[in-house]
Design brief:
Length: about 400
């Protein structure tokens, strides 16, 4: 799953800004384009930097330079499989990453929302109910509680959003850390320091309801992960409350989905053991063939415990090696065994005027890769046959047909 190179889902026409640009200019550019991150490039340097909207919003001086807030980011090679890139984003703590070629040149940028777009189209994740990964009993705050209290709760629990409810625990809206930064720390209209314009109440004492998002995007508890990821992508949001009868039952965030994708990747990893002699010069090629074929097999088998490949090396009279290969694959239901060896070639010779044909058979010399593929394909065919039989049996059972 998600084996395509990360460049395929990345944005290739990258918008950048110079380190000398002001914070106000950068924020304006990000809000105009709905960016959460922005790449910073100096005109005379190859170095790649990144800034995010939250760091810029707390800047005390909007005329200060962006270089006070930029950092050297984790970058992803353009050929990296998307599943590996997802793990890299999680480990880096970034919401976006520059994509570079083999020489380190910037060729694109990938964001969490690009990943969500991919998830939204995943047939596998359309079959996963959101309740499987949602955070249950989400932290909520009353609509009359203060913005200051909301910020304190977020800090204490290391979360980026709170659900706002009424006296009956019905969901009214959602407030995020970025809402507080945008509407309180950097309000669109000038206010007296520490006060909301026209009122003698400090900003942090105002009710959270004045800055919450409402109405809001929600999903039912029966929704699937692909559908929720689609909502995040389409509405440019990072969290979707899961509701039943207007009462919040849970919440799913982009981070939750990304972490679940990592679990799926780890579960899909298969331990492959190779036994027997193999010429050193062919080890790297054999490794690539095994990885490619095992990925195909894993898609059919869904869960593979282990694979063992036994190589028996023989030599013909001319000293050329021939290989007989047996592939063993253990799934939760069955042990599959596939065997292969060099195919026999046929030689036909004519003798005398009567054209007597003499058939000679011999093992085809040194075709290790074909033999390896044949052994693995033998396993794959067995799995497909079992799957087809099971599907036919299920259809017959569902239609009420008796054998």
């Amino acid at each position: 799953m998600f084996d395509e190179p990360i460049i395929e889902i990345s944005t290739r026409e990258v918008v950048t800004i110079s380190p000398e640009a002001s914070v106000a200019t950068a924020v304006g550019l990000m809000e105009k384009n709905k960016f959460h991150n922005l790449i910073v490039r100096a005109s005379d340097a190859d170095a790649i930097y990144l800034v995010n909207i939250q760091d810029l919003l707390i800047a005390s001086n909007p005329d200060s330079h962006v270089d006070n807030f930029m950092f050297r980011p984790y970058c992803i090679d353009e050929d990296t499989p998307t599943s590996d890139a997802i793990c890299g984003l999680i480990d880096s703590g970034q919401r976006a990453a520059p994509v570079v070629d083999g020489g380190g040149t910037l060729v694109g940028i990938v964001t969490e929302y690009d990943i969500m777009g991919l998830v939204a189209d995943s047939h596998i994740l359309k079959g996963i109910e959101v309740r499987k990964i949602m955070q249950r009993n989400p932290i909520c705050i009353g609509k009359t509680e203060s913005i200051g209290k909301a910020r304190s709760i977020m800090r204490k629990n290391s979360i980026g959003r709170l659900l706002v409810i009424d006296e009956m625990s019905n969901l009214l809206g959602i407030v995020t850390r970025c809402d507080i930064l945008r509407k309180i720390y950097r309000p669109k209209r000038r206010m007296t320091a520490g006060e909301v314009k026209g009122e003698k109440v400090t900003r942090m004492e105002q009710p959270v309801s004045i800055i919450m998002h409402a109405p809001m995007i929600t999903a039912s508890i029966e929704a699937n992960l692909a559908a929720v990821a689609g909502l995040m992508k389409h509405h440019d949001i990072r969290g979707v409350p899961i509701v039943k009868d207007r009462v919040p039952r849970g919440i799913v965030t982009i981070v939750d989905i990304m972490r679940y994708l990592r679990i799926l990747k780890e579960e899909a990893m298969v331990e492959v053991e190779i036994q027997g002699a193999l010429d050193e010069e062919y080890e790297e090629l054999a490794g690539r063939i095994i990885e490619t074929e095992v990925r195909k097999i894993a898609r059919f088998a869904r869960r593979v415990h282990w694979i063992k490949i036994v190589i028996k090396k023989e030599r013909d009279r001319g000293g050329v090696p021939n290989y007989k290969i047996t592939a063993y694959m253990k799934t939760p239901d069955k042990l599959y065994v596939g065997q292969a060896e060099p195919k026999q070639s046929k030689t036909i010779t004519a003798k005398t005027e009567d054209v007597v044909e003499e058939m000679k058979f011999k093992k085809r010399r040194w075709d290790f890769i074909d033999v390896l593929k044949d052994a693995l394909l033998a396993v794959e065919r067995q799995i497909e046959e079992d799957r087809d039989r099971k599907q036919k049996a299920d259809r017959s059972k569902g239609s009420g047909v008796r054998s």
